[in-house]
Amino acid sequence: MYSDSFNQHARLTELFPSGLPNIELSVAVALEAERLAKKYGKDAFDCGDLIKILGVGRNNVRELMRSKHFPVLIIGGRKVVSAIALAKWLLNDYLIQNTS
């Protein structure tokens, strides 16, 4: 639904034009989560962070965060997504699109 706009899919396709290498999904998720956490200096991302990470607009991020299928946590009234949950969501979505 949203993934056509995500820079991560273009980056993954560029890095792995014939598909992701044969590695465990859990390892790929952990590596991507670690990369995101280091790059942005945090383990959970809010709307503003997701705008930067995903390269989409505020309205799209807010709609995504209201989606039942997006792994949002509510902490102190703020909606956030953990780096590991975001990485898993992105890689699962990428795999679904590129294996069908």
Give a description of the structure.
The chain has 100 residues and is mostly helical. It has one domain: Arc Repressor Mutant, subunit A. The protein is 58% helix and 10% strand. It has helices at residues 7-15, 25-40, 47-54, 58-66, 83-98; strands spanning 44-45, 73-75, 78-82. Helix 2 packs across helix 5 and helix 3 packs across helix 4 (58-66).
Topology:
Elements (H helix, E strand, L loop, with lengths): L6 H9 L9 H16 L3 E2 L1 H8 L3 H9 L6 E3 L2 E5 H16 L2
Antiparallel strand pairs: 1-3, 2-3
Helix pairs in contact: 2-5, 3-4
Q: Could you write a compact summary of the structure shown?
A:
By secondary structure, this protein is mainly α. It has one domain (3-98): Arc Repressor Mutant, subunit A.
What share of the residues lie within helices?
55-70%
Order of neighbouring strands in the sheet with most strands: 1-3-2
CATH class: Mainly Alpha
Along the chain, the helix and strand elements come as HHEHHEEH
Write the CATH architecture name: Orthogonal Bundle
**Total DSSP E strands:** 3
Extract low-pLDDT stretches. 1-5
Average the pLDDT over all residues and give the rounded result: 83
Question: How large a portion of the residues is in β-strands, by DSSP E?
Answer: 5-15%
Q: What distance separates the N and C termini? A: 15 Å
Number of domains: 1
* Rg from alpha-carbon coordinates: 13 Å
Question: Largest beta sheet, briefly?
Answer: 3 strands, antiparallel
